[in-house]
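Exercise 7. Given the encoded structure of a 391-residue chain, write a plausible sequence.
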């Protein structure tokens, strides 16, 4: 069983005395190190403390530093790998230096308002299983931008963060980026090497680049972003595809997308007038749910919608092409299409009225479809677009 070593005011391990020089004499340290509230190190003129360990190269266990409110500088000059790395509640920590660190299992940074830069050396961390960074003063993620593969990546509520650029090729669990506003100029994100992902959520981003992305097995969702255009030129399939409340969005281009295995939702994107960037989309295995003020939708390759079909817009819209698809049994669930609506609604809402050239058809014989828009709670994405189909 691994032993946890606590660096406390008395620097004690259980009841056995341990001083800093003993820890500093190690090159490989087996066990977890917890640095908590008070430290037995001198304070500077500002009442701040600095801790530097020069010789430890590997910690076979976790390094946890929490609520050491006077700690302003933390340095591990030779540390190369840690099982887990947690920093939390360090309100004056402004210097974090681990120039040799390359590998960490879990990285968890929370409530570090004074930390603006990560010093993880030239290449930085290249291997990690999960990353959580929330409520920090970081303006960039230089130091972890050379990650090659990751399971979970969650970066939220970092008000100064202006850019995220990662070299990962796959994300096996989830990616969540939200509420990082770059001092209100907006966060730019780039994943130039990313090819496959399981679940991806983007909120409050000013640009998103996914040039190599080919497959997302669960949801790919965009909520409340400020980018004007979005393109994923190599994306061929997605579990679900969602664009909601992207108020500046004018164009979506997914020219290779052929199938969506869940929900296909475009809602409340006020500048999006024409939806024509899905030229190869053939199959939607969930619901197709469009609402907004668009005037033109082109889905020339569509052959199957297994769930409900909802298309409501305040714009002048001709439903005839989709009426024909419905008549030809392309749509398996409830069908609604209507233009010139005063309050265009998502699936499950009835059109307020129809205009000439628009049509609302389909009855409850195909079932009922309900949708709720996504919400954010506690900085964690909850894709509450609960789309329920009862056939």
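Solution.
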């Amino acid at each position: 069983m691994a032993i946890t070593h606590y660096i406390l005011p008395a620097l004690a391990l259980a009841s056995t005395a341990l001083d800093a020089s003993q820890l500093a004499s190690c090159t490989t340290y087996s066990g977890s190190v917890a640095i908590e509230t008070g430290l037995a190190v001198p304070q500077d003129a500002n009442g701040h403390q600095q801790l530097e360990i020069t010789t430890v190269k590997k910690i076979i266990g976790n390094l946890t530093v929490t609520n050491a409110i006077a700690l302003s500088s933390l340095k591990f000059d030779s540390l190369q790998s840690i099982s887990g790395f947690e920093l939390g509640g360090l309100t004056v920590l402004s210097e974090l230096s681990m120039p040799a660190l390359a590998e960490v299992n879990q990285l968890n940074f929370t409530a570090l308002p004074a930390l603006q830069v990560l010093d993880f050396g030239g290449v930085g961390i290249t291997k990690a299983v999960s990353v959580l960074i929330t409520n920090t003063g970081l303006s960039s993620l230089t130091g972890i931008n050379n990650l090659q593969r990751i399971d979970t990546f969650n970066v939220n509520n970092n008000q100064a963060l202006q850019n995220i650029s990662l070299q990962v090729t796959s994300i096996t669990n989830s990616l969540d980026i939200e509420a990082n506003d770059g001092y209100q100029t907006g966060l730019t994100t780039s994943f130039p090497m990313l090819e496959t992902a399981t679940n991806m959520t983007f909120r409050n981003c000013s640009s998103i680049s996914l040039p190599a992305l080919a497959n997302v097995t669960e949801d790919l969702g965009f909520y409340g972003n400020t980018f004007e255009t979005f393109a994923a030129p190599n994306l061929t399939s997605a579990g679900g595809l969602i664009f909601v409340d992207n108020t500046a969005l004018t164009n979506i281009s997914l020219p290779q997308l052929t199938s969506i295995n869940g929900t296909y939702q475009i809602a409340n994107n006020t500048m999006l007038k024409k939806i024509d960037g899905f030229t190869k989309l053939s199959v939607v295995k969930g619901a197709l749910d469009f609402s907004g003020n668009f005037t033109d939708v082109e889905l020339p390759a569509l052959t199957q919608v297994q769930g409900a079909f909802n298309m409501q817009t305040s714009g002048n819209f001709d439903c005839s092409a989709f009426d024909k698809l419905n008549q030809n049994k392309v749509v398996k669930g409830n069908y609604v299409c209507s233009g010139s609506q005063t309050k265009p609604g998502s699936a499950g809402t009835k059109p307020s009225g129809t205009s000439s050239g628009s049509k609302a058809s389909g009855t409850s014989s195909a079932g009922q479809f309900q949708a709720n828009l996504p919400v954010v709670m506690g900085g964690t994405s909850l894709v509450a677009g609960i789309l329920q189909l009862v056939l």
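Remark. The first helix runs from residue 20 to 24. Students should compare their own answers with the one above.
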